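Dear all,

This email documents one entry for the complex benchmark we are building for the journal club exercise. For each entry we list the sequence lines for every component of the assembly. Then comes the predicted three-dimensional structure of the complex as a token string, followed by one or two observations. Please use this as the template for your own entries, and keep the labels exactly as they appear.
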Amino acid sequence: MSTDAPVLDDPATDEAFDDEALGEGFADDRRKMDLTVEVEDAGPCLKHVKVTVARAELDAALEEAVGEYADEAQVPGFRAGRVPVTLIKKRFKEELAGQVKQRVLIDSLEQVSEEQDLDPINEPDLDVSTLDLPDEGDFEYEFDVEVRPKFDMPDLSGLKIERPDAEVTDAEVAAYREEFLTQYGRLEPQERAAEAGDTLKLKVTFSHDGKELHVVPELKAKLKPILRLTDAELEGFDDLLAGANVGDVKEATLTVSPEAERVELRGEEVTGKFEVLSIAVLKLPTLTKELLDRIGVESSDELDEQIRGSLTRQREYRQRQDAREQLLSTMVESADWDLPEKLVRRQTENALRRELLEMQQAGFTTAQIRARENELKQNAVTSTRQALKEHFILDRVAEENDIEPTPGELDREITLMALQQGEPVRRVRSRLAKSGMIENLAAQLRERKAVDFLLENATYVDVPAKEAAADRVEAVKQSVCGIGSVASAADEDEDAGSSAEEE
Amino acid sequence: MGRPRPPKPEQFAADRAIELDPYSVILRPLVTEKGTHLSERHNAYTFEVHPQAGKYDIRNAVQTIWNVRVDKVRTQNRAGKTKRTRSGLGRTRAWKKAIVKLHAEDQISFF
């Protein structure tokens, strides 16, 4: 979740720090300014604040500033500290006015934020350079500030979360073992028509409006109900090719995914011609001592045990992810309150800019980028709204339950990042500190802890696990449009391995 | 016979080759620590004045410009100082200073 740290540059924080240094009670002794504050609603989560600072406050601030100048001002004809106050006021008029303005603004804004309980999420929309201190009378200024949305917390205490059963059955273990052993299997060529479950070598030609888009000279795929390419899906893949013999050509229409890299082809229909080059059946190996040694286990029971352990871990991971998703969607469903529009816009623009920059870097033309921009905009607004609502709710949960990441947790997170990136911890930490991302990381940790807290207190309802649909899908690293179809080194190795076995 | 009487100030001014208006007589007030002290303690104000200006001119000029009553004018001719520069010895300009004491009820505010 993006947490573009909607943090108010709150002078109160610094002040509080200073107070600690100066001793307790200092903050209480601080003089209250004579202010008149009018707060009005100016839109969703937007407040219009009008502050009037009494003349006496301006004069007091001026005297204070003059006092500071009087001790140090260097004026020809006078020793330092001997310059008459009237001369200082005249000679340093502009400097003093700037200082008084700054002092009055900071103090009054601080007092307003303390007294009015505005709970702002960013700095006030205040152009200091346009403000001028009047020579006579009170000083007035106005600004708009975005505030944290006020909302009733959804009742998350009795939250019921469906937990798919994590127990792994023997049948699942057997199925996984079969799947696992396919990598050690051997392809036996067949002289018959193709059947579901066969492994076919195909030459595939994709064309659009009669123009050839991309040719895959050799595509090895198992005959399953769905063939999933990187940018399109073909349903009924098994029906299409079942019964086909070597040399047969079958045609099918595929719809290019809206996320495809070729912008102009998104959502377009593409024709795929599948020519069968060979038909083979994958024969699974028998679990001999040799094979077990190769896998690194001593017996088939140990293999089953390891498979069971791995499946259980996967299930538990899925359970956690599932629970998190359910929790977040429950939270957001009930959140019908408004968000600060400017914040949404800012966050959306950031996300959009990031995406467009990536497209530019990938070498897309301006027309292509523009075509994608509107679509991105719509998606970005929706997802940003959702992410912000999650953020505000989790922030409230963390606040109400005093959830804060400890320095140790932050350190652990940074160490983990360093390990993943293969960089020294110190370098990662200094980079994060330099880019100001440490605060974001802390905010993320805080949210994560808030989610964990909610999940700990939720009631779980065990439901049977959904059957994995993966077996219906044959995924290949090829695309319809021809971009990103280069097989990775791992695939090439894999292909080489299986062809060697074939021989 | 005693010493010849000095010319009256009016006569002195009339005899001078150049005519000075009040704003040419008073070149600038001297805003210094000493000047401030004099003004605060003795109601006397210091000015840099035209080197040709006499006490009578200064009195008139101050009275005209600030609309105050002048009690007394004291003047000093300040000699220029010798200054050593890269190209040899130089000299700063000479100037005339006036200390003008005002009537106890009058005041001037320079700043």
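Observations: The mean pLDDT of chain B is 89. Chain B touches chain A at residues 30-36, 109, 111 (CB under 8 Å).
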